[in-house]
Write a structure and sequence with these properties.
By secondary structure, the protein is α+β, with helices and mostly antiparallel strands. The protein folds into two domains: 360 residues, Up-down Bundle (Na+/H+ antiporter like fold), CATH 1.20.1530; 83 residues, 2-Layer Sandwich (Alpha-Beta Plaits), CATH 3.30.70.1450. The chain contains 19 helices and five strands. It has a five-stranded antiparallel beta sheet, with helices on one face. A hairpin with a 5-residue loop joins strand 1 and strand 2. Helix 9 runs parallel beside helix 16 and helix 16 runs antiparallel to helix 17. 44% of the residues are buried.
Length: 496
Amino acid sequence: MTLEHLPVDSVLLVAAGLMVIGVLFVGSSDRLRVPAALLSLGVGIVFGSDVLGLVDLSDMALVRDLSVVALMIILFEGGLTTKPSVIRESGIPGFVLANVGVLVTAGVTAVGVQLLFSPGWETALILGAVVASTDAAVVFDLVRRAPIPKRLAGILEVESGVNDPFAILLTIGLIEVTRSQPTAGEWLLFGARQLVGGLAIGLIGGWLGTKLLSIRLRSSGLYPLLAMGVAGLTFAVAATLSSSGFFAVYICGLIVGALAPRHRREIRSFHSSLANGADITLFLLLGLLVFPSELPEVAVQGLVVTAILLFVGRPLSVLLAMIPFGMNWKEKTLLSWAGLRGALPIVLATFPATAGVASGDRIFNTVFFVVIVSALLQGTTVAPLAKRLGLAVDRPAWQSIAEAVPLDDVDVDLIEIDITADLPLVGTRLADNPPPSGMLATTIVRNHRAMIPGADTVFEAGDFLVLAVDRATVRVSDATAWARGEKKGPGEPEET
């Protein structure tokens, strides 16, 4: 007697196996010195129908839809983990670069492709629009690993989070040109819906999310699920109203990450794991979709398009966009080189292919080739370039040294501080460097052992310090300022 196997069994076997392999490869990306996205793409290509033939995935529309969901998850997590201080310092230049970057890069690429290969202006313009945007998945991963200065990392984060509407506007609009002749008014209306609508819905979704997350639920594990539901609802409402769901969900994440009253740590931790899974799944799917045997015929065009992007389009867009912001040539050079292409251009490349554009398949293969070269070339050289330019920092810009752990039903928070070797606390006694009023050093974890600190306790690099603080008067930024030896005046905004 045997149990009949269900069709889903084989799907789960393959999907779980690919996920395990993808996680192991991505988890080793730092040691292998290869971008995680490229490893996931490689796993997908190897297991796809053109190499080992273990997975036959040819439904481009299905991959496009699944990729949109993965990007939604990644963008929401990116907003959750973006510090308010990053928005204050880098929000305007990041938004300007997102706007100017897409338009200038799309135009320069289209002109170059048309002059060199003459595929027709429609094809050249669509190709330029598809590759014009940087990608949130690879950029968020980059700024969390590479020693990029905080301001530049913030600009890259904001740019990759908000340039999707511009790229989608151009791509869909140019595809419609191949079918009809939209008027200038129709272009403006579509653009306004994408940008203004996405911003408004994102703000409303974020505000609603913070209110819902303040409700007391029976289990702390429900709050991350509630946040995920808010993200999905925000994206879906924006998309239903012909606005940018990508823009809306990123804005929603920013607000929830900054203002969620409780369980912020659980929410971030859950969505960080979820975003990592979505990132791996996204590039695995895109790798399974491509046919490597078709890439050699677009290799020359792909290399030329990559060269135009890296050495003409991107530098020119950075040069123009950063004029008002007083950057030196070293900062502009690093900002230019760190504008990686990734999943979003590939996802956008499925639009002309599924819309019946005559050159859709060739555009897809060319864009896939460009992304591989960008990830391999730029992804492996950003950190060395930062060091060569003298811009490398000891701590990746996204990392906080302090994290708040709110406690229910009491007016006390716990703040955890990772004491690293660069902090002035190291080597000082608690009695000589006590926390300010409203903070109490309760525990130090050292070599996996917890101890209650006394006046003669000396802080050491690698210690994990827990402070109990008065929620009404002390914020995370106060603890951060104390740990860094900074003078922080009352009322300065919190950095979370």
